[in-house]
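Predict structure. Chain length: 335.
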Amino acid sequence: MADDPGLVRSRLWRAGELESDDVPFDKISDYLDDDGALLWVDICDPDSHLLTELAEELHLQPLAVEDAMSHGERPKATRYSTHTFLTAYAAEVRTDDQPEHHAQVCLSRVSAFILKRGIVTVSAGSGFDMDAVLARWEDNADLLQYGVGALVHGLLDVIVDSHFEAVQALDDKIEDLEDGLFDEHAATQLLQRRTYSIRKDLVALRRVVLPMREVVNGVLRHRKDVNAPSELDAWYDDLYDHVLRATEWTESLRDMVTTIFETNLSLQDARLNTVMKKLTGWAAIIAIPTAVTGYFGQNLPYPGFQQHWGFALSSALIVGIAGLLYLTFRRKNWL
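Prediction complete.
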């Protein structure tokens, strides 16, 4: 097997201590057969030939290899005879300069083949920050003595933390929407675009957050296959609690966006009713001069016909009745 440093990263631990950070690609299977070794291999954007060659040497399930290469796979954890395969997505909210598209959820897929003495991760593109996973393993270096379970926990923990950060960013954006919801000078069309944008982001985030419960449960069910000790139980319980919190938070934000959307429509109806009341009030006030001048403009004799006091009477009727309507409408908050 040819070594390709541009695609492959690796680390080797023994008894929880780092032994090497550059394992030759053609020695991977040898270290995975070593009882005292703990190995991590990462392949970024592999071609089918490279991954197929590795799968044949490590006896990986062809269906799992196909899932690692294909696009659009949902988060899942599947147990095969020789390994457990999982797929998950890290999330990141990126903000651009256009207010109508204020944020966008970017998903980065990572797959992992969980073996007895190591894991092989396959990442698509440079979106997933594997350095964050390495830093998490270094921060919890004392857990590495417990084997593969510690590596899997660190990987999933980084992914779940990215979900938290994405949900927090969207929560902040929703608070901005709430602040502008009752702003009389806010642009309604812009508010609608931002609401739809956040709703779309939440739908995308929800598709990768909700299945994480199944992923973590699947890993927990098959931990005995990799000899994960009970010392990791508390860490996995904490991880599962974080998954539940991220899921509940995502669902609550989805309900909140729906409420904002419905409230915005209700406020638009209320503003329209206010405008219609004002127009109706002013139309009634303007109708009084029209009616009075029309009556006094008849070509028939009437009280005050061709008399100065008739003009004064018509003017008094216009001012009096129009003023009475104005005061009435003001008292009802129509004007």
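Summary: The two ends are 83 Å apart (CA to CA).
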